[in-house]
Amino acid sequence: MREFVSAIVPDGGPRVVATLLVSRPPTNALTRQVCREITEAAAELGDRDDVAAVIVFGGHEIFSAGEDMPELQTLNAEEAAQAAELCGRAVDALAGLPKPTVAAITGYALGAGLTLALAADWRVSGDNVRFGATEILAGLAPAGGGAARLAGAVGPSKARDLVFSGRFVDAREAHELGLIDEMVAPDTVYDAAMAWAGRFLEYPPEVLAAAKASFSEQRAPSGP
């Protein structure tokens, strides 16, 4: 039984928008157990034919402050490597969900929490949210492919600025950078994400899955 992550699938129709809810107050820090549960919940939602799209949500206070530093400080080198691998699996599981995904971001999305948000297809944020690739401030490099995902969203130069400095970015700058797709009032974040995800309720699931997979296909080399 999962303790911190829920896969919420509402009743009411042949095709619904589900929610992958991370709930580990007060900061939704990504412990090893949270990462395991994200991977499991993503797999569960990916297998359900009645789920048309998925909202990734950390609740109304905070999306995620990133990796759990108190836990990391107790780990030896081997355990820390395992924790980074589990984080990467969770991010990949969300990115690999064969459904459209929307991250509904409140409060903060920092470090690995930002990477998790970047694994969604789109990001909707409150206008008071703060973002940051803050791992360097703790003497770490981004895990879970965080730097590459950030570069894919904002471009390599701007990504390097954020990763090397660890600086915080407000929602307005995040929107200008292309880090988020929509900025709304803080108390309407989930509703805005639902409106975004609800556009896909009538699309055939196999077509959506194929369309999403097409973005990760490797182009065959040309020539003889």
Automatic annotation (TrEMBL):
Keywords: Lipid metabolism, Lyase. Could possibly oxidize fatty acids using specific components. It comes from Mycolicibacterium iranicum. One of its GO terms (molecular function) is enoyl-CoA hydratase activity. PANTHER family: (7AS)-7A-METHYL-1,5-DIOXO-2,3,5,6,7,7A-HEXAHYDRO-1H-INDENE-CARBOXYL-COA HYDROLASE, ENOYL-COA HYDRATASE-RELATED. This is Probable enoyl-CoA hydratase EchA17. Belongs to the enoyl-CoA hydratase/isomerase family. It is an enzyme of class 4 (lyase). GO terms for biological process: fatty acid beta-oxidation. The keyword Lipid metabolism applies. InterPro entries: ClpP/crotonase-like_dom_sf, Enoyl-CoA_hydra/iso. It catalyses: a (3S)-3-hydroxyacyl-CoA = a (2E)-enoyl-CoA + H2O; a 4-saturated-(3S)-3-hydroxyacyl-CoA = a (3E)-enoyl-CoA + H2O. The lineage of its organism: Bacteria, Bacillati, Actinomycetota, Actinomycetes, Mycobacteriales.
